[in-house]
Amino acid sequence: MKRGLSAPPPFRLLAAVAVYFCFAGCIKQSKTSGSLPRAFVDTSTANTCAALLPASEYQSLVRQLTVKSPLGIVSTNDLHGHLDPRRVSLTVSPQDEREVVVGGAELLASYLAALCRHYKGRLAYFDTGDSYQGTLLSSLTSGQAVLETFSSLGLRASTFGNHEFDFGQMKIREWLATPQRSFWYVTSSLNGQENGHAIPWQDLHPPRFAKSVVFDVEGIKLGIAGYTTESTPVKSIPTHVAGLAFKQLNDVLDQEAQPLRQQGAQINILLSHAGGACDMRLPAAQGENACPQSNSDELGQALRASPQAKNNWNLVIAGHSHAAQRHLIGGVPVVQSTGLGLSLTHTTIDLSLPQPEVQLHNPIYLCETHFQNWAGCHPEELAWRNQPSAPIGPAKAPELNGITIRKADGQRVATVLSTYRSQLAEQLKSEVTSTPVELTHDRTGKSPAAACLVDAWLAGLRASGDTWGDIRADQLDMAVLNSGALRSGIPAGSLTFGRLFEIIPYDNTAHVVRLNSAEILAFARAQEASPHDYFLVSEGYVVQRRSNNSPAPRTLNIHSVQTLQQPKQTQWQVAISTFSRTFLEKAGLQNKVIDTGMSVRDTIADALKNKDLAKKSCRSADSSRMEISPSNN
Of 550, 586, 572, which is closest to residue 480 (Cα–Cα)? Predict the structure, then answer.
């Protein structure tokens, strides 16, 4: 039932073989194996600039390096699958308004290659997670398009963001076992030993997965550790993080630096999927004022509380908060880009002095016109251009406007993505169904579109013929969605898969559970606590509540308006979405749930393609079968 863009046939075969063998051996090993290797020394010749530039040009550049040549560090964060460029209107001044192309993998490749030339090949590219979830191109490839793009860009290392777990640990196993992956995954915060569990995907091949790693960048030893926010368990699907515990950032800051030094690291860098927000108008040295403390600033709190952080770490590359940073926090240089593929961070490190000196620069916005004699292509960047960051050390900031960006440098990435983009274009155009009238949607109440889609979802699940535990698909009684899972209504006429994705953009799967009447009500009350969502129930059931305007939790009752096969049955077999599972947990019912792995969106699409199912589910604009009325109680 799952739908997605396929990788090229040779890759599918290699990946399948790799995953098969790792399943055969690694799961058994994981029961007894210890924690991930720490300060693993990478002896490979992988290099960011070697991946981006022609071999002859790269070799010519590195021959020009001297002991005074600085090291360049660039990074991205929170890409969320944004591999394609976007066209936006930008007002530079009241008299100057332009349409510019921003972001995308090809532009990123061009910028990285330009910076490689500036640093004579001594450049390293990193990412801090939340890379895969967020766009159709990435979601339909289960992140594979992003993974291959990262490898073609010469990414050296990344860490897990909380959204990496959206696809489940089985998908992480596949990513780690992908032969095309040339970069490291590092995370010092994952602890799978709690309650006797080992991390179930630590022994996969190819390796490039450790708590931390030391590698060489043109004669300079970099020590790289990773941190995944400790809030991941409450921001992820419970089954997707089962058996894992997440360390606090303070522990990672204190424990992971020294092993890297012992392995010869000259520069220690932490890839942190935790970040804050700073006033970019203030210089870097004023970080304590520019980056105010808050309860949500996990990174800032940890850096300020650690007396050794400024001695242990030369640089922290942040993520998660989608906010630009380039400031000293607790004495530690911290950088973060705005995310979504629009910008990258940029840091210069000078090792020719007795102590390494770090220079932080403003994030670089990716724009085709950035190097064409004007300062930027984003309102924030234009606001910063006359207020550069204060020097942290004597290293001189490179003059980016003097570097020529070459579109041709993005061609390799374009080639990698071309197959995926072609498949996606065809799928977006494919018709799912057609409706004679527009079906509107209301996130705060019942609606024709919601009635259509929730009924189609149940019909599609029943038609699958699957069995989950002791629950048979054809015996499901009802399906329940929260209204926020649907973002808009269904237009009259042709409904394409691309339009359906816009309506249902989230990659939820179906979960099934047996619930009695009291449990159904507890689940409904937990969901109704949200003032902006609505309880959507498939045809045949009515949810009654005392008043639409009463404070949550509202008084609810649920009953059947159809005669069930077993009128006296006390349990119903219910399908819910991934998101709605959190409401079951609030009701203390999480142990009963089975994740089917079936995409909500794809199941609905399959049902709507079946004319008989679509006709039954979306027969008219009438939504009275979902009637929610005041209770007489």
Answer: 572
